[in-house]
Specification:
By secondary structure, this protein is an alpha+beta fold.
Length: 159
């Protein structure tokens, strides 16, 4: 049996991702409104407007309800002495191990929505890629940044 990483991101990430999903759905609302307006103006068949409304309703379901829940359930991480393990994905679960000796620097980032909910993201950079752990409690993100930085320095000294 393969053990998953033990830590989860903050449950408040759901709210943040739902707000982002609502913004995406608002774009679908504008598009649906435009299609309805064009349908009325050009006297197109009514099924075009109905399809636009259905797509808007589906966008709300997927981007505001389903995807944030699945994303939160799948996101896990664990910081160990030798590596950082990440697990995430909606339908395809991706697991990544980042060796501490490869870590070049660690950042925390906080946009306006994350700031409102007192969350931050931690970004771990290697020479080849960047890995993000999203929506952690602010204090946890700062502790993790310091801890990973310290572990990466120790791992670098061992080489």
């Amino acid at each position: 049996m393969v053990l998953e990483p033990k830590n989860r991101i903050s449950e408040r990430a759901l709210r943040v991702w739902r707000i982002s999903g609502a913004v995406i759905s608002a774009v679908f609302l504008l598009l649906a409104g435009g299609v309805i307006g064009l349908t009325i103006f050009f006297d197109w068949p009514i099924w075009i407007s109905v399809t636009a409304i259905i797509l808007f309703i589906l966008s709300i379901y997927f981007f505001v309800i389903l995807f944030p829940s699945l994303r939160w359930k799948r996101w896990r991480y664990e910081v160990r002495e030798q590596e950082i393990e990440l697990q995430h994905g909606l339908f395809v679960i991706k697991r990544t191990l980042v060796p501490m000796v490869r870590v070049q620097h660690v950042d925390t980032a906080q946009g306006p929505i994350l700031r409102k909910y007192k969350l931050a993201s931690v970004t771990v950079s290697t020479a080849a890629t960047t890995h993000e752990i999203p929506a952690l409690e602010l204090s946890e993100a700062e502790e993790m940044r310091i801890s990973i930085s310290r572990l990466a320095r120790v791992a670098d000294e061992d080489v």
